[in-house]
Structure formats: structure tokens, C-alpha cells
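Pilot study result, target chain (507 residues):
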Amino acid sequence: MDISARKGDLIQQPCDVLVVGAFLGVKELAGASGAVNEALTGDLAKFMKEDAFKAKLGATFVMRTNGKIPAKRVLVVGLGKKEEFDLEAIRQAAAASLNVSKSLGVKSVVSVLHGSGTIRQAHGLAGGLKPTDCAQAIVEGVRLADYTFDTYRSAKKEKKHVSRFDVVTHDGQDLRQALKGIEVGELMARGTVFARDLVNTPAQDMHPEKLVDAARSIAKGNASVRVKVYDRAALVRMGAGGLLGVAQGSDHPPYLVHLVYKPKKATKKRIALVGKAVTFDSGGLSLKPADYMMTMKCDMAGSAAVLGAFRVIADVAPACEVHGIFGAVENMPSGKAIRPGDVLTAMNKKTIEVLNTDAEGRLTLADTLTFATKQKPHAIIDLATLTGACMVALGEEITGIMSNNDALTTKIQEASVAAGEKMWRLPLEKNYRKLLKSEIADMQNIGSKWGGALTAGLFLEEFVDKIPWAHLDIAGPAFAEREIDPYTHKGATGHGVRTLLSYLKSL
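Predicted structure:
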């Protein structure tokens, strides 16, 4: 599907589907939808009223134009309440319009630039949404809604494809900005799709070696990105007892992967992105119930988000040096696996009593975070499908943020809002540190049955050496077990990629 923008009169665009928007509760059509209604001699408003159409976010109404305008059909997409209108509303509206267009089997779609000045003025909305950002949101919504993963289907289902999706604006300045936004949106979507593909791939084909291959493929032929891979022997020399301990039970060897992006212009700013990369989590000897294992191919989603960001980082071109770090392992039960009660020594020499082998992600992160500190970054962000407790607290759609730095947290939250990825800060309650005290080692890998997300965050904080750090527990939103919104279908979501890229762009 080709996505582009052009200048022109929306009413005069020949296409299979013409997309305009409407706000919930607004009685009279205005802006682009008002102009289309007028060209259709009032039929659009008439039929919407007859069908009792409510312009809730993502709701759609379709009617044929019967030759009154060059477009064969008009699609009205709900934008929700105008006081809640934002980039995420645009993203979902664009996705909904693509989904309906595909269901109709059409080839060409023309859309108004949702959020443009004309729409804002027509509905009495304040400015604040830039055409660049609006176009970016449209592209993200369309591309992510169009995503499918059918690698393993023996008989490929015939898909309905939209060949062209064009954004039209009458304003030349808006057009120039929209074209820039389309470029950025394509990059954001490409990185997200790359992460989705990695996570959706079954663990039989996405074991630690394959994550290494993915990292090397990104660096190959890319002068801005280099990669170094540390194998088991190197990890032994480095004293990476957490990674080595988790990997003991698997036939697949562990690896530590270190990607580095350097901008063309020299900079002292250095950011480290760390991802959990457990390619399958059986729980080890603390075996998970069967139902809990069904989606555990997604336990490497943190590393997938880091790889997704690196997939496009050279084109996004942030003005800072970026390090991408993950420890790729598989957590399996066997005669070689670590046991409850074993003591591991992490890379920073701290000893950890393993009370539950299913709390393995934090053991791998202990080493990868320590490795990250050795790169002397100005900030560390880790992403991990770490705890079911975070899902209990925040549900399936919201990431929990735990951080030792308010300014870093604010920047990440701002980036997440721009990206449409929901995140909420949770406390690092210092009084809960006592729950991690061990009778025989420096610390234990689990706390009590309460506040599990928080004690996991406190555990990780022991390995960041007071560097500004934020932990993103993406256990809920990394893998959708149901359709979340028009562009997030069941399966891997690529959650975190767009937030990371938005954050890096802001530096």
C-alpha cells in the first residue's frame, strides 16, 4: 500500500472511498464533512441521522455518492468527543477507516488530514496539533491496522488490500508538513512491525541465536550501527551469573548483545536501552501452569522493542549515542536447571538467592543493567514483560513505570502520550526493600505475594548504580489476547517501540 499526501480540493478527489471525520455530540456537520454533505445535497447528514449514527471514536458510517462527487463512497469516521481529541484519536480513526475500506474490497482511499487547521477551527478546537504530527498518526494507524502475521499458514488466505491511501489538504504549508509526518510515521510503523514479527514468531524459531541474528541483520551494511555479541565463554569471564543461571536448563546457549548507534555529529549524550530477552519462559523448575505458558513466546518483547527501535534508528537519526543491550536466554526445566534455593552471583558481584525460578527476567536484567552502567550512559531505560503483578495493578493495556529520576519519567511519559502507548508511574517504595532480604545472600529474587511489580522494580534498582533509570513493565500491553483498538489486533503489539523513538527524538 502506498501512502502519500497531496494538495487539492477534497470534494473533487476521484477514489473508491473518501474519508472525513465527525465529533460525537456535534449536531451539525462542519469542516470537511460539512463540505461533503453540501456537495451531496444534504444526503450525508440525512442518512447518518436515519441510521442513528453516533460518532464514537472509531465508529464508521458508509454511503454511496451515486455520482454526485468523484468519490464512489463517503466514509465518516467517529473522532469521539472533541474535548478529548488528540493524536491517539487520529491514529484510531485512521485505522478504523482502513479496516472498513479493506472489508469493502476497495483499492483507493482518500482521507482528510484529521486534526488540520480547518477541522480545528470548524469545531472550535484550540490549536496545538501540528500537521506533521497529525499525518504521522494517520500513517501509524493505517500501517499498524494493516499488519498481519501469516508466516505459518499453509494456505495463504486471499487478502483484501488497499493499494493507495492518500491524505489531501488544501493548504500548501500543511502539505509540506504532512509529507514530513508521513516519513516519520512510516519509520515508527516499520520499527513496530519488526518488533511484532519477532514476538509473534514461535519459540521453536525464535530462540536466543535468532535474536542474535536479528541484531546482526540490523547492523549489516549500516554504518551508524555496530553490534558485539558475547557468548557463553565471554559471559563466564564477565561473571554474568544471572544470565548463565537462567540459561542452565536450556539446550540453547545464552548471549549478551550490545548494539551501538552513533549519530553523524559527535555528541556526549549517551542513552542505554535494555530489553528482557527470555525467548521462552516455562518458569524453569518453578514450572508455570499450562495456561500461563501459552503466550510465553512473548517474554522477549522487551528486547524486540529495543530491536524495533534500532531497526529504524539510523533514519530517525536522534542526536544522541544509543546503546541497545539484551541478554538472550531460554528458561527451561531440566537436570541442569537452577533450583529454588540456589545462589547466583551477578556481574556486579552481588549474590542472589533464587527462591522462584519463574522470577527469571530480573536475574537476566541484573547482568544486562550492570553491563549498561559500564557504558556510562546519562540514562537507562529497560523494558521487560516482568510481572503478572503489574497486570493485576494496571490491566492489559497499561505499562507500569518505576524510576529513580522524576525528570526522566516525565520525558518518557510525554513520549508515550505522543506515541499512543499508555503508561502509568508506580512507586519504588523504599520500605519494601526489606522484603528482598535473604538469610544467606545479599538479596533474594522475590518478595512477598503482595506488591510484586514494586519489589521487582526495587530488585532492578540494585543494578543501575544510581544512574537515572526507568523500568517499563510491559507485561500487559506487549501481547494482546484480544483486539484492543482498531490498529492493535490479537497478538504481538510492538509496544514500546514508538515511545522509545519519540523519547530519543526529543533529546
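One observation from the pilot: The CA atoms of residues 318 and 505 lie 5 Å apart. A full batch analysis is planned for the follow-on phase.
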